[in-house]
């Protein structure tokens, strides 16, 4: 389901401001990914990408969203989202 080249791990996360969370990932150690809560789950809102990190693909984005929602206890809501491709 997720990227085959490099396994992504959520290194740490922190609250940024109301309805926003910052995530730090092993595949992108120099970049900060910002998530915003939409309804009952979090999606990538913006990021501070560093040129030393690889380009973020759609598969990477999907995996990072899955991981942050899993850690925050919102995995089931994330998996039920309307935009989920079947």
Automatic annotation (TrEMBL):
Domain of life, per lineage: Bacteria
Protein name per its UniProtKB record: Uncharacterized protein
Species classification: Bacteria, Bacillati, Bacillota, Bacilli, Bacillales
